[in-house]
Design goal:
This protein has about 250 residues and is of the alpha/beta class. It has twelve helices and eleven strands.
């Protein structure tokens, strides 16, 4: 309920004796934790405590480290949130969306020139995922969360009569099912999916994809070519190429 209220995908967890101070010994609970550790396992979200599913100790980075290092830490550990720690006290959180703003949206960002680098190929063709997991709209949210957990993914494209009509994400499940107290075993995927499917043409730029995600407040876009969905692009995909390009420098300095 707090995640839905604040429109966030994670919450820091204070130790019971922290007296309001969040340190490296605190924890974090994310949408992914709620999906994979609670719903997918058939646990009752109203009875499960936060400390049963949180990640602790926190994955942290110091304020003086470059954003490239933050990106590598998040990519290596497969997380979307990284805590900033100054003298063992948590002073902030970096999300994957923050990385996108820095690498793509800001003037002079390190991958603003991707479109020129990959010409004549489309940069979205390089970044997108061509393996797309789907689920029929009449299937249950419980089945959807179990598939997400098994495949270690954050979304499923939704099918009706063989056509892709929408998408269901971790955020949808957390805000529309868990926070609303709906039964995952009896709620259909079609009842909580996002529809219509937000699409972007394969020949558009990475910056346009980022702008559209920010405008629609979403983390996934269906990529189309000749009006046919050919891939799925996530906000993480937009910055993943930075890790690949800069990995030798990061490993050398680690």
């Amino acid at each position: 309920m707090r995640m839905r209220e604040k429109s966030v995908g994670s919450l820091l967890v204070e130790p019971t004796n922290a007296e309001g101070r969040v340190s490296n010994r605190s924890g974090i609970v994310t949408e992914t934790d709620l999906i994979r550790k609670v719903l997918a396992k058939g646990m009752d979200s109203s009875l499960t405590r936060v400390d049963q599913i949180m990640t602790s100790p926190l994955l942290t980075i110091t304020p003086d480290r470059p954003m490239l290092d933050a990106n590598h830490l998040m990519e290596t550990n497969h997380v979307r949130h990284l805590c900033v720690s100054d003298k063992e006290e948590i002073v902030g959180v970096i999300s994957v969306r923050d990385l996108v703003r820095y690498f793509i949206d800001s003037e002079g960002g390190p991958i603003r020139d991707l479109d020129n680098v990959f010409r004549p190929l489309s940069v979205l063709r390089v970044l997108m995922q061509t393996t797309m997991e789907t689920m029929a709209s009449e299937r249950t949210v419980l089945e959807a969360t179990q598939t997400m957990a098994e495949k270690r993914i954050g979304s499923l494209l939704v099918l009706e009569a063989g056509d892709m009509v929408g998408i269901v994400t971790e955020t949808d499940v957390v805000r529309k099912v868990i926070a609303a107290g709906l039964p995952a075993r009896r709620t259909s995927v079609g009842a909580v999916m996002n529809a219509p499917l937000i699409q972007i043409d394969i020949n558009d730029t990475a910056r346009e994809a980022s702008r559209l995600m920010a405008e629609k407040r979403i983390r996934h876009l269906a990529v189309t070519e000749d009006n046919k969905v050919v891939g799925l692009l996530s906000v993480r995909d937009l910055v993943k190429v930075v890790s690949i390009r800069d990995e030798p420098r990061f490993l050398h300095n680690t």
